[in-house]
Automatic annotation (TrEMBL):
The modification 4-aspartylphosphate is found at residue 57. GO terms for biological process: phosphorelay signal transduction system; regulation of DNA-templated transcription. This is Stage 0 sporulation protein A homolog. Keywords: DNA-binding, Phosphoprotein, Transcription, Transcription regulation. Residues 6-122 form the Response regulatory domain. It comes from Thermanaeromonas toyohensis ToBE. GO terms for molecular function: DNA binding. The lineage of its organism: Bacteria, Bacillati, Bacillota, Clostridia, Neomoorellales.
């Protein structure tokens, strides 16, 4: 189901912005409301346009994407920042999440996957390029829990770790999208985690699911 999403594109490369705008023009329920060339302009336009999602590059002149994300978290918390970058360094990823980003995607993401991932972010979920999860594991620690997952919940979590959206998981398991959401809520409760990213990180650490290749 399409949703009405107002998107602000932030990248210092005109070609990237125009390419994303052209791509999103083909997506039902998406509207690019503005473009910014750096973090300073991004903050100014976001406060003026109040987009649902700010799709933000990191390395830009005047003000980088991480500092712009910090400012938007304070000034405009209802707008969700999703980082779109070429930087696959886990330290940068963690810095982005700490700054308040709700997603961290590499520019190698497939267009259809980007479409679904942005919708999930708009619904309040966090998203992350699957290839980065494995890189992050050595930097993550958690207190063990005695709670365990059912076989079906492990299946769902494995597919989440591979980067599939709720809709794609539903299709693969021949269940409804609402059932997938119910499984995810149960998983988060059992693992005492706040979002799907944290749940995947913990399950990988415990060896309950396999790391994405």
């Amino acid at each position: 189901m399409a949703c009405n999403l107002r998107i602000l594109l932030v990248d210092d490369h005109t070609l990237i912005r125009k390419g994303l705008r052209a791509l999103m023009a083909e997506w039902e329920g998406f509207e690019v409301v503005g473009e910014a060339r750096d973090g300073e302009e991004a903050v100014e336009l976001a406060l003026e346009l109040r987009p649902n999602i700010v799709l933000m590059d990191i390395y830009m002149p005047r003000l980088d994407g991480l500092e712009a994300t910090r400012r938007l978290k304070t000034l405009l918390p209802e707008s969700k920042v999703v980082i779109l970058t070429v930087d696959d360094n886990p330290e940068t990823l963690l810095a982005a999440l700490e700054a308040g980003a709700k997603g961290y995607l590499l520019k190698t993401v497939e267009p259809q996957q980007l479409y679904y991932l942005l919708q999930e972010v708009a619904r309040g979920e966090m998203t992350l390029t699957p290839a980065l999860i494995k890189k992050m594991l050595p930097r993550l620690t958690r207190t063990p829990t005695l709670n365990s997952l059912s076989a079906r919940e492990k299946e769902v979590l494995e597919l989440v770790a591979q980067g599939f959206t709720n809709r794609e998981i539903a299709q693969k398991l021949y269940i409804s999208e609402n059932t997938v959401k119910n499984h995810l809520r149960s998983i988060l409760e059992k693992l005492q985690t706040k979002n799907r990213l944290q749940a995947v990180q913990y399950a990988l650490q415990q060896g309950w699911i396999k790391a994405p290749k």
